[in-house]
Specification:
mainly alpha, 128 residues, two-stranded antiparallel ribbon, transcription, 2 domains, 5 helices, transcription regulation, Arc Repressor Mutant, subunit A
Length: 128
């Protein structure tokens, strides 16, 4: 389920956080789906349980997951437009990436096609 690069300069908990976000955004992990327990994931990845806990806390803080005492951690339902700060952060990152893409020679059509591919993929995930 997860692949972590132990030789990377990025902390393991950040890699794990990003991977879980990606799985949620691509619809692989769905709303209210239970995540592996800290102990289980720690054993699977051979990572300290505190690292897994730190990643889960960060995801919960950002609103991607929620926890139920005694039950575990679950994927939060999508909340369209409720997190203005996160939306502003993503917008800034997109502007930075788009400026880099334009600098590297991407055309408006190529960028539009990437948006279209992302939208189509999201539409497929929403299908039953």
């Amino acid at each position: 389920m997860f692949e972590l690069d132990v030789r990377s300069r990025r902390p393991i908990y950040e890699q794990l956080t990003d991977k879980i976000k990606e799985l949620i955004l691509y619809g692989i992990l769905r709303s209210d789906e239970q995540l592996p327990s800290v102990r289980t994931l720690s054993a699977q990845l051979t990572v300290n349980p505190n690292t897994i806990q730190k990643a889960y806390r960060e995801l919960e803080r950002e609103g991607y997951i929620y926890s139920r005492p005694g039950k575990g951690s679950f994927v939060s339902p999508a909340q369209q437009g409720t997190n203005a700060a996160k939306k502003a952060e993503v917008r800034e990152e997109l502007l930075r990436l788009m400026a880099e893409a334009v600098y590297l020679g991407f055309t408006e059509a190529e960028i539009g096609e990437l948006f279209k591919q992302t939208s189509e993929k999201k539409g497929e995930e929403d299908q039953p």
